[in-house]
Amino acid sequence: MIHGWLNLNKPIGISSAQAVTQIKRIFGIKKAGHLGTLDPLASGVLPIALGEATKTIPYLSCDLKAYDFTIKWGEQRTTDDLGGDIIRTSTIEPQYSQINCAIKNFIGKIKQTPPQFSAIKIKGARAYKLARSGQKVNIKPRQVKIHELKLISVDTINNSANFSMMCGSGVYVRSIARDLGIALNCFGHITKLRRTMVGDFRENESVTIEQLIEKTRFLVSFQRVTLESRKKEPVSATQMTEGTGSNVKSFIIPVESALKSMFKVEISLEDAGKIRKGQEVVLNNLRNLKNHDICCTVVGSVPIAICSFIYGCVKPIRVFNI
């Protein structure tokens, strides 16, 4: 079993869930999950947790994301991207100065209404499912934060513009296209969308599905050697990267590395045994922690559990079976 994080460069044409399914098939594993969702028409960084790393998903920060995208002016579509039906048109072609002036109102804390075709739940049902059935759903606006929104270039031939954006969680780029188009009185929708960063996961460190298929041939050989030596215990990302060359090390991020921003608490093997059984452990001199702070207990570089610190004790929340 593989435990670690994968910085996947998702291609256009598959959903985030389909990407996870392909990764499961490539590695021959049953447990995997993704951090942050990318639409089928979007590409770029999609962090995927493998094995026990799925337990860290709620604790990894994805508060900062970066995107490059293109808005086509003159059409508003049902999905606010290229895949939807045209519902409104305009012959207005906004100029560089007009666009550059308008985007100033989209920087900082703003109110944004998610698209009709989104994963937002409305009375237990996904908005996109309701929209596909022909229902118009009432989605309430929510406050989001856009740290930076830059106009990169304007294509006067295709009546479109290219942007880069850095934002917090919950921002819909398709909503930016829709609302900016309305503000410019010309309508707009996304034609290209690429995510270049999610937290500590960067595009220049990502790997494609094609590269994975090639590189995992080495991994299969390594696992075969492990079986032949009759080692039946799961193989962690840390174990795989030791002495196996850069092929594996280049794309599997160990669980402990993904948790680098979480406060670490070094414990003994005896305490690790107790925590693995779900027991609380009393620890002294943890002055850097306050009640209900979240920490990761470790033995050396091996993560034992994500814990909550309460009145001098660490209480396991998610125990790693690594």
Automatic annotation (TrEMBL):
InterPro entries: PsdUridine_synth_cat_dom_sf (IPR020103), PsdUridine_synth_N (IPR002501), tRNA_psdUridine_synth_TruB (IPR014780), TruB_C (IPR032819). Its EC number is 5.4.99.25. GO terms for molecular function: RNA binding; tRNA pseudouridine(55) synthase activity. One of its GO terms (biological process) is tRNA modification. Gene3D superfamilies: Pseudouridine synthase. Residues 174-259 form the tRNA pseudouridylate synthase B C-terminal domain. Keywords: Isomerase, tRNA processing. Pfam families: TruB_C_2 (PF16198), TruB_N (PF01509). It is an enzyme of class 5 (isomerase). Residues 24-173 form the Pseudouridine synthase II N-terminal domain. Belongs to the pseudouridine synthase TruB family. This is tRNA pseudouridine(55) synthase. It comes from Trichonephila clavata (Joro spider). The lineage of its organism: Eukaryota, Metazoa, Ecdysozoa, Arthropoda, Chelicerata.
